Prior knowledge:
Layout: E1 2-3, E2 9-10, E3 15-16, E4 21-22, E5 27-28, E6 32-34, E7 39-40, E8 45-48, E9 64-66, E10 71-72, E11 77-79, E12 83-84, E13 89-90, E14 95-96, E15 101-102, E16 107-108, E17 113-114, E18 119-120, E19 125-126, E20 131-132, E21 137-138, E22 143-144, E23 149-150, E24 165-166, E25 171-172, E26 177-178, E27 183-184, E28 189-190, E29 195-196, E30 204-207, E31 212-216, E32 221-222, E33 226-227, H1 246-252
Amino acid sequence: MIFNDFNVRISPKASIGKNVRIGDNTVIYDNVVIEDDVTIANNCIIGEPLNSYYSDPEYNNPSTTIGKGSLIRSHAIIYAGNRLGEYVSTGHRVTLRENNTIGHHTVIGTLSDLQGNLTIGHYCRLYSNVHISALSVLGNFVALYPYVMMTNDPYPPSDDLKGAVIGDYTQVAAHSTILAGVKIGQNCLIGALSVVSKNVPDYSLVMGEPAELKMDVRKYVVLGKGHLYPWMNRFSRGMPWEKTGFEQWIAGNK
C-alpha cells in the first residue's frame, strides 16, 4: 500500500490490496475492498454510508469493491454497496450512489451522476455530465455521450419507478434523454438532442423530439465514408478487439 500521509483515513475494517495508491484527504469507510494496483486520487470518499447510517444505531456498512487496476480520480464519491469491476476509470467529481454493478474496463466521465441500483456492462463509455436514474440497465460496449440523461419516473412524482434499458453496442449521442421504462435494442444509434419515449428495435437509427425511427442503421451511409454501422468494424481504440479486429475477436469468444 502506498499513500500520502496528509489526512488519509482508512477504516480498520477495510481491505487494501497490493500496490494501491491513495491520495490526500481521502476517506475509506468500513467494508471496502480495494483490489491490487488501484489508484484513488485526492479528496475521494469510498464506501460512503447509506441514509440509514444516520438513524440506525445498528447500521452495518454494505460491502464495496473497487476492482483490480481501477483509477478513481479526485473528488469522487462512491457509496457503499458499489461493485466496480477491474480497470474501471472515473473522471473528477463523479458520484456513484449505492448498489451499482459496473463491468470491467468501463469509463465514467467527469461530473457524471449514477443514482444507484444500476447494472452497467463491460467496456461502457459514459462521457462527462451523464446522469443515470436508479434501476437503469446498460449492456456491454454502450456509449453515452455528454449530457445524456436516463430517467425512471413515468409520471413524476411517483413510486412507480421503471429504469430504462440499453442494449449492447448502442451509441447515445449528446444531450439525449431516455424516458422511464424505455427499452433500446442492440447496435442502435440515438441522434443528438433526441427524446426517446418508446421502445427502439435492434439496429435502429432514431432521432428527434420525440425520437422517430429513420432507418436500419446498417443502411446509414455517410458521403465519402460509406456504411459506418455497426461501428465495431471501424473503431477499436481501447476495445478488446484492438489488435485482432472485431470479427476475429467475436469468433474467438463464441
